Write a sequence for this structure.
């Protein structure tokens, strides 16, 4: 055998028996299994970490959404609080203005009542025969001018009351009671002026205002009537004004009279529900 053949024989791959091949295959499979066991936990761990990161991201996003919602609600509540505070301030201002207005009205009513009392005293001091005759004649002339325009339904009552008072003035004058004659004539003039002023305001300015009588007018309730807080059928009712109860009319607004009752109550009553009180007639 030559040297070349000997070398080839030395490097020839040895033959592997089947049982050795099976053993090696088993070893390879075991190695691969062990490698797979080591890789799977890591994959699961990575997946779990990814899920945790995604969950945290979702939670953080949800928190941001809720926080933004809370900020929006807080801003809306703040705007509502500011609106309510502004509304409350406006209500307080309105209440204060109404209170000031009521005080001014009470003061004006008190002043007008005081002026009326002085006017009545002045009438009595001037109650002479010529003065009474002049006053009655003046009221009769104004009454005739008023008749030139036919009175409406509400004016008819006032017109009738003025005529009754004017007749009472003439009767008192005939009895030489000049003070009573001037009182009745002055009260008749108040009703006449009430009709004339209401006509003028309806023609020029529909807004009604409260006008004080220069001379308070004693009246008597014709029937049980509601005493109201303000002029108007929708105004609050302060109490009942019983039939034949005596009152004193101090002012008027439209067809409503502001009266003072014998027990000190002040309120408004419709003019057709009261009538002139003629003492001794």
């Amino acid at each position: 055998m030559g040297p070349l053949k000997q070398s080839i024989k030395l490097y020839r791959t040895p033959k592997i028996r089947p049982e050795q091949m099976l053993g090696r295959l088993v070893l390879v499979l075991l190695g691969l299994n062990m490698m797979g066991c080591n890789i799977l936990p890591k994959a699961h761990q990575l997946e779990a970490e990814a899920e945790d990161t995604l969950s945290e991201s979702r939670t953080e996003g949800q928190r941001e959404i809720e926080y933004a919602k809370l900020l929006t609600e807080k801003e809306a509540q703040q705007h509502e609080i500011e609106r309510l505070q502004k509304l409350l301030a406006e209500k307080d201002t309105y209440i204060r203005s109404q209170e000031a207005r009521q005080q001014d009205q009470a003061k004006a009513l008190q002043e007008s009542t005081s002026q009326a009392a002085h006017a009545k005293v002045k009438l009595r001091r001037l109650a002479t025969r010529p003065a009474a005759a002049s006053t009655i004649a003046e009221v009769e002339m104004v009454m005739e001018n008023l008749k030139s325009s036919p009175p409406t339904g509400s004016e008819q009552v006032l017109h009738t009351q003025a005529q009754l008072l004017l007749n009472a003035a003439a009767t008192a004058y005939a009895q030489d009671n000049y003070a009573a004659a001037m009182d009745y004539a002055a009260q008749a003039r108040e009703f006449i002026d009430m009709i004339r002023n209401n006509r003028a305001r309806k023609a020029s300015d529909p807004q009604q205002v409260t006008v004080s009588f220069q001379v308070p007018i004693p009246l008597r309730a014709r029937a049980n009537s509601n005493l109201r807080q303000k002029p108007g059928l929708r105004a609050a009712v302060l109490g009942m004004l019983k039939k034949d109860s005596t009152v004193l009319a101090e002012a008027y607004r439209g067809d409503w009279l502001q009266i003072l009752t014998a027990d000190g109550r002040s309120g408004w009553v419709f003019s057709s529900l009261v009538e002139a009180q003629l003492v001794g007639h």
Summary: The domain at 114-276 is CATH 2.30.30.40 (SH3 type barrels.). Residues 6 and 112 are 154 Å apart (CA to CA).
